[in-house]
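Hey, quick one: can you model this chain's 3D structure?
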Amino acid sequence: MGGPLKWALIGIGVVLAAVIGVLIALFVTYDRRTPEEFIKVWAKAVESGDTKLYEELWDDEAKEKRRAKFNEGIELVKNRPKVDLSLMERRGDEKAVTFSGIKLTFLREGERVESTRRVRIKRVGFSRSWKVVDEESYIPPAPPIERPKRERKPVLAEAEVKLGRKAPIDTELKIRQIIEDWRQAWEQKDLKRYMEKYADFAEIRRVTVIGGKEYPVKLTKQELERRMKRLWRKYTKIRVQISNLEVEGDYATADVNFLQEYKGWIRGRIAYQDLGTKQLKFVRDVKDNTWKIVSEDWKIYKKVPAYPKF
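Sure thing. Here's the predicted structure for all 310 residues.
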């Protein structure tokens, strides 16, 4: 056998061996668990309070992109809630699956607390392992109300549906109290009181409106603190008005929506103004039983008059 042919065959053999090696590695490491088997491991980690296992179940990239939701999950796991998968619903395919209707129940100060969880998992990486890529508490839609054909009770039925979506009264009262203190701290330029409302891992999205155009920016808690210092030095007077406030949630999380009008004065004249809808997500901190803002978002509601620059 000639030299060139010999080396060519050896090269082909090396390539085939490498391909076979890759195929064997894929076969050995491929995650053969069903999505239902994976979610049971997730439930085990949550019920046992195993934060290390819970963290391993998350995809690393998703963990960084959704840091607030991941940390919210860690805080819930520390409560070691009872997980009920009996009413869980599945939606998706062999690559990505979303489980909704997962019930979490735990005790806080002798009080029974319930929360509904949604978990999205996806196959990632070389081994196509199932990993959590998103997770959140949410308010499930109210079930349809069956009414007799000739019996009309629309007022009562609509009230029942509305009440079923609202947060518990003590949660709503506490959240409203915190938001009013947050608003006053903003106007009074009380940095310490303002910043203590935010969790250390909070994700804040602020928008500046110039000439009717929105300029959004995503901030960490530390970046927000620096931004507020600059704004408070710039404006001699600030006014923040809140209206149409709505609170949905349970004893562990709360979603808040309201209309916010912001005005900033320089030397007795309004220099900046915007009007928009703000969304705040609160989580109850298990360490000291306080509510913290874990995410904030703002969208323009309508254009307001532009003021000359100073």
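One thing worth noting: The CA atoms of residues 284 and 291 lie 4 Å apart.
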